[in-house]
Amino acid sequence: MIANLLYGILLLLIASGAITYIVFVVRFYWGWKKLKQEKNYRKLRVSVVVVAHNEANNIPRLMTSLLSQDYPKNLYEIVFGDDHSVDETETIMQKYIEQGHNVRYIKSLGRDGVVSPKKLALNKAIVAADGDIILTTDADCIVPKTWISSMISCFTDDVSMVAGYSRTLIPAWNKASILQKYEHLDFALTYMVLGGGYTLGKSWACIGQNLAYRKSAWEDVGGFSKIWHLISGDDVNLMQLMRRKGHKIIFNFAADSFTYTHPVKSWKQFINQRSRWASNMKYQLYFNPEFFFILFSMACLYWGGIVLMFINFKLGLIIFLYRILIEHIMISYSRKQFGITARMLGFYPVWLIIQTFMLVFTMILGQFGFFVWHGKRPPKGDRNAYNNFR
After folding, report:
1. Whole-angstrom Cα distance, residue 122 to residue 99?
2. Helix and strand numbers, DSSP H then E, in the chain
3. Burial of 39 by CB count in 10 Å (0-12 exposed, 13-18 middle, 19+ buried)?
4. Element (H, E) at 214
């Protein structure tokens, strides 16, 4: 009796995931077909905000790309927030200032006294910024010369935030390691889902490597005050605060806005990164229940099918093949938008195997805070976190 009940619950969870998957894939398809982005042709004052902690080796390449923008030089500044670096970061940034570039350097101290040193440095940089638009990226990123122009073109009068795409920099796919290929394809497949959501007017997630928002909107939600207690989430949780306040958020699908980031150097670093991202998932239950339900349903489909194979192999295999079919339908109409070639898709079977286990593994690590962010671990016993969001 109990065994039959558990089996029935398992089938119900798998069915919910299968139905959710196909419903949203179909909705995404029509969203992509109808996608048409309005453009703003007015030039706005922009503050490019970068926060770094011991990134001296990456700063010159980023600064070269930022100083080579096709946007009017008198309309954008670079505000560099130094998160208490102990390398050559300050020396490097002072050289750019001495050369006469419109760069401001702000040193942030007191890492031990706050949960999120990055948020502290980012907050100081934004407060000091003169621009109407805050445009963020990371110190280990490279941006195209059209980056500012493309992101600002999305700020029509009713838009408060523009999310962008960031991909890993892989010069030669055939020479890339399994880790590099996995990370690159995983980024793209994740954004195919997130991008599909944006075509429906749903802002589920974003990344600070390529994000822009009005400073007035940031001030309207109280800056980072409601998420100050969280070690990360200065991007996705800020987005949800703005969404809940009624601010319009869109995605920039134009390839000339896509940024590059350096690939991770080890599986340990990758797991730490994804665990940190997954740590924000529990807050999505409060911020955005619909997105949480979609993630939960997908997990039921992924893992339910595998568990089912040990009970009814044929039915479990059908569920697994169903997932592959649905994913390929979605990939077929959205992959070119994110620069995924047929050759890259040849790595899909390897990605599928790794991702099925990696997803659950990093979700567990993230919920229990087993990760490090900018040299800090998340605080324990954050039981009252939800009260801070109100």
Report:
1. 24
2. 14, 10
3. exposed
4. strand 211-214
Reported as a single tens digit per residue, the pLDDT across 204-245 is 999 999 999 999 999 999 999 998 888 777 899 999 999 999
Alpha-carbon distance of 161 to 154, in angstroms, equals 9
Predicted TM-score of the model (pTM): 0.91
Could you give the residue ranges of the DSSP H alpha helices within 172-288? 178-199, 215-220, 236-244, 267-278, 281-287
Can you tell me whether residue 51 is helix, strand or coil?
Answer: strand
Number of other residues whose CB lies within 10 A of the CB of residue 26? 13
In terms of Cα–Cα distance, which of 18, 12, 93, 9 is closest to 51? 93
DSSP secondary structure code for residue 49 in this structure? E
Question: Quick count: other Cβ atoms within 10 Å of Cβ 268?
Answer: 9
Could you report the per-residue pLDDT of 308-349, keeping only the tens digit for each? 889 999 999 999 999 999 999 999 999 999 999 999 999 999
β-strands 248-251, 159-163 pairing = parallel
Whole-number mean pLDDT of the chain?
A: 89
Torsion angle (degrees, nearest 10) of CA 182, 184, 189, 192: 180
194 touches 298 (CB < 8 A): no
Query: Any idea which architecture 40-164+206-263 has in CATH?
Result: Alpha-Beta Complex (3.90)
The domain spans of the chain are: 1-34+177-202+266-383, 40-164+206-263
Question: By C-alpha distance, which of 305, 282, 309, 312 is closest to 352?
Answer: 305
Contact by Cβ (8 Å): 257, 209: no
Give dist(CA 359, CA 31) in Å, integer.
26
Q: Is 113 helix (H, G, I), strand (E, B) or coil?
A: helix
